Amino acid sequence: MFTGIVEELGEITAVETLDDACRFRVRGPAVTEGARHGDSIAVNGVCLTVVDHEGDAFTADVMAETLNRSSLGALAVGSRVNLERPTAVGARLGGHIVQGHVDGTGEVLERKPSEHWEIVKISLPADLARYVVEKGSITVDGISLTVVDAGPDFFTVSLIPTTLALTTLGIKQPGDPVNLEVDVIAKYVERLLTAQGGTR
Predict the structure, then answer these.
(1) Of 71, 77, 86, 169, which is most buried with the most CB atoms under 10 A?
(2) What chemistry does it catalyse, as a reaction equation (predicted)?
(3) How far apart are CA 181 and CA 50, in angstroms?
């Protein structure tokens, strides 16, 4: 489990394309410290398994299903990525419960800078809109954010200077894809209510 609090801004240093998968080499000094084979690291909100690590970088295999459902397929050498290790039991939950299982992708639609923050508007797939509410939580490229406004096919988030400086949302431009993970609690509630309604 993750919390959506990005630990560092890493970089893709190598991409190996396989028949039905892709292998990334990711530089991230903080998240590779103490890393072992089989550990999990979230890359732009996608939970990946460490295959190997050396120095300040690790490699991870990404299967076709993940490439198709996320924006990882658009990554290239030099791409910056948000990195986070799983939260430890007993640690503070600084963001919200994040599984690292991307529900879909959106697109940055526009950015409106102001003196102390920036409003970013992001497109929202129709099948995810019912899980997104004003002042609720959503994960964008692995970043735990609070929804400012929720429309039928978009939502907005307000970004503070720290988020702009330390995550990919500081450099994403209109047209760029982002990974979205909605609040898992909303999905469980929907499932329970649906099941309950079906037994009446």
Answers:
(1) 169
(2) 2 6,7-dimethyl-8-(1-D-ribityl)lumazine + H(+) = 5-amino-6-(D-ribitylamino)uracil + riboflavin
(3) 21
Residue type present at position 147 = V
Burial pattern 158-195, b for ≥16 Cβ within 10 A else e, equals bbeeebbeebbbeebeeebbbbbbbbbebeeeeeeeee
Q: pLDDT tens digits for 56-79?
A: 999 999 999 999 999 999 999 999
Q: What is the pTM of this model?
A: 0.91
Instruction: Report pLDDT digits (tens) over 131-153.
Output: 999 999 999 999 999 999 999 99
Coil/strand/helix, residue 85 = coil
What are the two backbone dihedrals, phi and then psi, of residue 147, each rounded to the nearest 5 degrees?
A: -75, 130
Structure tokens at 178: 């982002």
Interatomic CA distance for residues 176 and 193, integer angstroms: 35
Per-residue pLDDT averaged across 83-97, rounded? Answer: 82
CA torsion through residues 120, 125, 126, 131, sign: negative
Q: What's the whole-number average pLDDT of the chain?
A: 92
Check residue 2 and report its DSSP letter. B
The 8-class DSSP code of residue 172 comes to -
Residue 101: count of CB within 10 angstroms of its CB? 14
Asked whether 69 and 181 are in contact (CB, 8 A), the reply is: no
